C-alpha cells in the first residue's frame, strides 16, 4: 500500500466510512447514477489523496451509502488515459476502495456501437475486451504482480447478478465485447470496420485499463457500457463529444435503476 492510499483510507474512515462492499466507477455523463442515494456520505475528490481531479467529472466526489444491506461506494468521475497520458491513473483510487474492503467492482462508461441492434441509449454488459490501445497500466510492475491472468477478466458471477438485476428493475441490456482505443479522438471509419472484423461489439476510450488494474488487486470486476453513438461510418455514425455526453446522461436513467437493483440480487448458482 502506497502512502497516498494509506492516507486516503484514513481520510475516508474519518468521514464515518469504515468499509465498502461494492465499488462503482462512473464515467463522463453518468454522474447522475449516484444522485438521490439516501443518507449518503459525500466526500470531494479534492479531499482524498490520489483521487482524480478535473477530469471526466470536474466536481468529482465519492458517494457512499448503505443500499439494501450493502455498502456501496460510487466514484463520480474517473481519470482517463487520454486526459492524463497515464494508463495507471486510476491505480490509487481502485486500491483505496479495495483496502476499504470492496471485493466487487462495477465500471461504467460510454461506448460506441458497431452492431446494428445496439442503439444509442442502450446498456451493454461487457463480456470481454480487446486492448487495441496497446498500453498496459501494469507496465513496470512485472516484478510486483504484473503477470496476471485475464482469462476471466469479467467475473461470471457478477455478470449473472447483473443479469438478475435486469429482471428486478425491468431494464433491458445487451452483451458484447469492448475494444479499447486510447482517444481522445474518435475512431476512423476504417478502424470501426477493423473493430467489427476482430469481433468487437462496442468501442471505447475508458474502462479497460481499470479492469486490468482491478484484476491485479484480486477483486471481481464487471463493466457496463452506455451506448452513446454509432462508430464512425457505421449506421451513418459521425460522433461528436457533446452528443455523446447527452446520450450518456440519458442512458444514466436506466443504469441508475440497474445499479439500485443490484444489491437486492443474490448469487444462487454454485461457484
List keywords for this structure.
271 residues, alpha/beta, Rossmann fold, 5-stranded mixed β-barrel, 9 strands, globular
Number of helices: 7
CA-CA gap between termini: 30 Å
Q: Report on the biggest sheet.
A: 5 strands, mixed, barrel
Spell the H/E element sequence.
HEEEEHHEEHEHEHEH
- Structural class of the secondary structure composition? alpha/beta
- Give the overall form: globular
Arithmetic mean of pLDDT:
93
- Count the domains: 1
By CATH's scheme, which homologous superfamily applies? Nucleoside phosphorylase domain
Write a structural description.
The protein is an alpha/beta fold and 271 residues long. It has one domain (3-264): Rossmann fold. The protein has seven helices and nine strands. The protein has helices spanning 3-14, 81-84, 91-99, 156-169, 189-197, 208-216, 241-261, and strands at residues 22-26, 41-44, 61-67, 70-76, 104-113, 123-131, 173-180, 202-204, 220-230. A five-stranded mixed β-barrel has the order 5-8-7-6-9. Strand 6 (123-131), helix 4 and strand 7 (173-180) form a beta-alpha-beta unit. Helix 4 (156-169) crosses helix 7 (241-261). The longest helix has 21 residues, at 241-261. It is globular, with a radius of gyration of 17 Å.
Amino acid at each position: 500500500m502506497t502512502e497516498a492510499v494509506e492516507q486516503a483510507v484514513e481520510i475516508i474512515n474519518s468521514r464515518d466510512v469504515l468499509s465498502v462492499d461494492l465499488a462503482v466507477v462512473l464515467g463522463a455523463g453518468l454522474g447522475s447514477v449516484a444522485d438521490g442515494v439516501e443518507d449518503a456520505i459525500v466526500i470531494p475528490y479534492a479531499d482524498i489523496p490520489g483521487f482524480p481531479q478535473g477530469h471526466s467529472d470536474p466536481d468529482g466526489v465519492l458517494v457512499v451509502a448503505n443500499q439494501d444491506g450493502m455498502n456501496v461506494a460510487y466514484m463520480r468521475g474517473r481519470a482517463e488515459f487520454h486526459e492524463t497520458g497515464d494508463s495507471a491513473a486510476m491505480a490509487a483510487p481502485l486500491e483505496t476502495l479495495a483496502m476499504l474492503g470492496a471485493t466487487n467492482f462495477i465500471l461504467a462508461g460510454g461506448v460506441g456501437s458497431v452492431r446494428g441492434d445496439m442503439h444509442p441509449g442502450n446498456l451493454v454488459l461487457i463480456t470481454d475486451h480487446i486492448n487495441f490501445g496497446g498500453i498496459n497500466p501494469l507496465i513496470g510492475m512485472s516484478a510486483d504482480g504484473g503477470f496476471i491472468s485475464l482469462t476471466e477478466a469479467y467475473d461470471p458471477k457478477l455478470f449473472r447478478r447483473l443479469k438478475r438485476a435486469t429482471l428486478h428493475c425491468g431494464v433491458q441490456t445487451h452483451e458484447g465485447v469492448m475494444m479499447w482505443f486510447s482517444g481522445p479522438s474518435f475512431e476512423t471509419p476504417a478502424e470501426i470496420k477493423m473493430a467489427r472484423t476482430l469481433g468487437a461489439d462496442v468501442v471505447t476510450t475508458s474502462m479497460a485499463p481499470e479492469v486490468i488494474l482491478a484484476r491485479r488487486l484480486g477483486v471481481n470486476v464487471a463493466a457496463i457500457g452506455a451506448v452513446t453513438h454509432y462508430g464512425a461510418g457505421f449506421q451513418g455514425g459521425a460522433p461528436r463529444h457533446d452528443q455523446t455526453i447527452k446520450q450518456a446522461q440519458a442512458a444514466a436513467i436506466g443504469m441508475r435503476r440497474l445499479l439500485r437493483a443490484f444489491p437486492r440480487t443474490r448469487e444462487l448458482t454454485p461457484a
